[in-house]
Amino acid sequence: DTYYSSAHTDKGPNDILIDNKKCCGILCESNLSGHRLIDVAVGIGINIQLSREEQIQINQPVARLSDYSARPLEKLALIQDVFDDFFSQLLAFKEQGFSLIQSQYTHHLKP
After folding, report:
1. Is 93's pLDDT higher than 90?
2. Is the full-model pTM beyond 0.90?
């Protein structure tokens, strides 16, 4: 929320939309052994500043975070902020379970 001034919504479990255009996508892949979780790989894609040509090649409306940012974007600072927030949420999940994250998630869900 600190990087853009417009309201955003979450579409499904892994997309973040601004003005009904995809700005971010999150993919998770887990590795199981029977019923035991071995590890999880998380990939986060953020549309910071795609060229107009790149946007045309994508088969859905795309939002560039730079077009909505309330301040200039620095890629390394953005990456650091995403990691910091991710690990903060992970610690909260470990301590409080899914209920804290669920309330934040459902607040942003697209109707």
Report:
1. no
2. no
